[in-house]
Amino acid sequence: MIVDVHVHLGELGRHFQKWWMDELYGGFPNVPDREVRYRKDPVESLIEDLDQAGVDVACVMASDHRRPYPYGIGSSYTPNDYVAECVRKHPERFVGVCSFDPLRDPHEARKELERCVREWDMRALKLYPTYDHFDPRDERVFPIYEKAIELDLPVHFHMGYTGTINAPMKYQFPHLLDEVGIRFPEMKVIVAHMGFPWVDECLCLLMKHRHWYADIAYWGAFPPEFLIEMMKKFDFMCGYRRLLYGSENPWTATFTKTVMNLNEIAKEKGISFRISEADLRKIMGENARKLYRI
Ligand SMILES: [Zn+2]
Prior knowledge:
Bound molecules: zinc ion
Distance between the termini: 10 Å
Radius of gyration: 18 Å
Structural class: alpha/beta
């Protein structure tokens, strides 16, 4: 079974504006389909992408980035209710991942987390420190971590680069999660994007907090050599049982093939690298199945 742990939901004009996507993906010359989030029926199109990629289950995420854009240019907000509705339509293909801006209303956020798990069986919480302008070490977020532990829910943090201009870099460094891990050792954490470009920092984080995971979403934006070099280090330092396959939307239809063919790509390029079938199965689905209870 192949599981993609990193897919966003939302409709153009309803949940986000065009400028939002332009900022996100404008920095890369090799985005396979820049229009991917502008499709008329994004959910059905996503199912087609998953079919094309051979992905069985996608973990589909909500987001709430309204607070940093109070000045009327539109924001990005995909509510949990919408994600729940999409999962209801495709229960075999989607697993719901809830999200909220933890500083918008911390008390409400705690209740919302409980509702998402109990009512809609959502399997993880996604938090976006840089997009939502908060430091994950902020004490106002701690009650949410406590609730996630109580519910045994993994917390997926966006760490690392984004092209979004109004997303401060000071909240992107993976090391910000270290103190969170020290204070909340029982919390299950997934670091998104391997914290790119602070990959070594992310590796150190995972070497300390040995039950944490990372995903490789967004790495479809780079030449596969980058991924191979990172994976060599990851295997040596953390072991593949803690790496998760994720795509990020413009690469959902295409990235699976790259990762599945890494041995061939390495051979072609004369790079010394080999990953076993068993390890590949862990990254492509087995690890996620355990973590997200799929
Ligand atoms: Zn993402």
